[in-house]
What does this fold into?
Amino acid sequence: MNRRIRGVFVALITAAVLGGCSNGGFSQLSPGAILPTNTAKPSPTASASPTASPLPTASPTPTASPSPTPGPLSVSPTSLTFTYAGQVLTFSATDPRYSGSLTAVSGNTTIGTVAPTGTAGMYSVTAIAAGGTSITVSDSLGHQALVSISISTTGGVIQSARHRAGETP
It folds into this structure.
């Protein structure tokens, strides 16, 4: 049955092609017919060429913001000058992006001692004896800041006495 359908199909196509023109697909010219000399040849028409569709671009992947690093650890003032033993002066220590506790240690406790005042970041230094040393303030990450201390004790009290004429001191 397939062969028979194919044969009919081939016959129909052949008849359609050849039947469109007489004389087996050729047309005859009448005697004395003048052929046009300036015939425009059909030019191919521009067909829409497919344009490349834009490729999807990768969206930037947001990167995690790094945690702010602690620092800078700073002290204010950076030096303290004492004039007598027993004098107490204070300094502050701050680290704006550090939330842990700070530690202050005297380099020489026979010259001066340091202790927290009870107010966050505030320390008191007590002069013990003449000399110089430094206080090291540090955090648990290893950052440090120094406060230089200088103690000069000039013992003695100057008293003034007025004498009247004729009095002995």
In short: The beta strands are 74-76, 79-82, 88-94, 103-106, 112-116, 122-127, 131-138, 144-151. The chain has a mean pLDDT of 76. Residues 78 and 147 are 5 Å apart (CA to CA).
